[in-house]
Each structure stands twice: as C-alpha cells, then as structure tokens.
Amino acid sequence: MSVFKKIRNSIFRNIHRGDRYHCIYCQQTANRFRAAGSHSKRIQKLNAVGTARRQNAACPFCGSSDRSRLLRLYLDKELSTSAPQTKLLHIAPDDILARWLSRQTPEFTCGSLYPEDFAEFNAIKLDVTQIDFPDNYFDIILCNHVLQQVPDHLKAMNELSRILKPGGWGIIQAPIAHALDTTDEDLSIEDPREKRQRFGSTLYCRIYGKDYPQILQENGNWQVTEVRPADFLTDDEITKNALIPNEILYRVNAM
Ligand SMILES: [Zn+2]
Predict the structure, then answer these.
(1) Neighbours of ion ligand 1 (CB under 5 A)
(2) Ligand 1: centre distance to CA 149 (Å)
(3) pTM metric for this prediction
(4) CA of residue 24 to ligand 1 center, whole Å
(5) How many CB atoms lie within 10 A of CB 117?
(6) The predicted structure's pLDDT at residue 106
(7) Of 158, 162, 170, 105, which Cα lies nearest the Cα of 133?
(8) 65-254 in CATH: which number?
(9) How far apart are the CA of 29 and the centre of ligand 1, in A?
(10) What are the φ and ψ backbone dihedral angles of 184, each rounded to 5 degrees?
C-alpha cells in the first residue's frame, strides 16, 4: 500500500470511525464509504444502476465497489458447493474480486483485451467477440461491466454461450438504466465527452435498458434469471455491506 493510501486511510478511519458499514474484503468498518460513479446528469436521471453517482459505494480502505461486494457475497454461497476442479473464466476482472476468486479454484483463468493490466493474475489476451477456447470449456464465466463497451455485444454473448459447458453458469452484469425501456446505443460517437455524458463513461458505446435480460436471452443457448440481493441476503446484510438494493445479478444457466 502506498504512503498516500496509508495516510488517507488513517484520516478516513478517524473521521468516519464507526460500524455502520462493513467491507467483506478487508473486514474494516466505517460510518461512511466513499461516493463513486458517473457525474453525467443524464445517467443520474435515467437511474442507471451500477454506474450513476451514488453515496457509500467504495470501501475507503481497500477500494472494493458495491457491485464487487455483492458478487463476492453471492459467489461465497454458490462456490461452496462447486467441484474443486471447476474451470472458471473471469473476464476483465475487478482486481479485488479476482484476488479472492483466484484462490477459490486452481482452474482460474483471467482474460482481457489488455492482459498487461492483469499481470498479477497471469491474464491471457482475450477478445470477448472471438474467444480462443473450445466449445463447452468453462464451468463458470464471470463477465461484469464489459459488454456495454463492446461494439458487437451480440457476438460477444454468443461467444460466451459457446464456451460455457451445458450445466455451467455465469454472471453477465452490466449497468442498467431502469428508466429506459430499450437499450440506448450509438456506435458512431467518437467524442469521449459525449460518450460520458450519454452513456456514463468515455469507454461505453451504450447504456442498457430494461430489455437487457431479453437481449441476453436471445443471444445464447442459456436460461437467464434475475437474482436480486434480497433473494439471498437479509435487509440488514444489504445495508451493512453497503450494497445497491436494486442491483440485479443476471445469471445465465447453459443448456
Ligand atoms: Zn475494504
């Protein structure tokens, strides 16, 4: 940890001392977590879960995000019954989740278009629209907050489905604007500021709407189910872990 982070954490610990929130990764508590998310007014207005600016999102000590804490809590339960040799693919991972996950199965593979950014996990180069793995290879795939950046996202969904074994499953998460009935996409925008204003980030080419699970369903040989925090956590656990109560995990079960 850098000297800057140590000093920042120490200041934060003193200012926000308390136990209102708990971080499952670093086991620290505080009465306030850091705000995070896009400042785009449009994204705020669209109530884009997972990307709009929000309070109490990031752990001030280790930086874990609300969505990585949600996924960790879900995987804690789901992986406890997995076979030891489960082949798991984590695409463009959240570092903090990957660090934990890579210790859960010896068959952990990390893939990214930019593997140099994930050298800690021995990442391989992986283009999600053209995945260099055989059919039916993985038992579990995690692909979170990636597809909103991929121009040909339908091809990516089909590729993810292809490499997932029948009986395998995955979580394919993306920021969702619940105020939009249909996904808003424009592949022609090049100006990063325009992308940020319209979609919430300079890297995004779309913001998904309520049709996201339907798009997912139509582009893979799988069954999509929506898992809500309240399906596997109590209200107290949702509050304590500083989660977004209406953040949905989109789970695919391969046929
Ligand atoms: Zn933490």
Answers:
(1) 23, 25-26, 59, 61-62, 64
(2) 27
(3) 0.93
(4) 7
(5) 13
(6) 86
(7) 162
(8) 3.40.50.150
(9) 8
(10) -100, 120
Max Cα distance, the chain (Å): 52
Give the Cβ contact number of residue 192 at 10 Å: 11
pLDDT value at 232 more than 90: yes
Nearby residues of 57 by Cβ (< 8 Å), 6 or more positions away: 33, 34, 35, 36, 37, 65, 66, 242
| Residue in the structure block whose two tokens are 């692909």 | 143
% residues pLDDT > 70 (the chain): 100
Per the CB < 8 A criterion, the answer to whether 168 and 141 are in contact is yes
Q: Are 99 and 126 in contact (CB under 8 A)?
A: no
CB atoms within 10 A of CB 137: 16
- In the reported structure, the alpha carbon of residue 141 is separated from the centroid of ligand 1 by a whole-number distance in angstroms of 24
Q: How far apart are the first and last CA of the chain?
A: 44
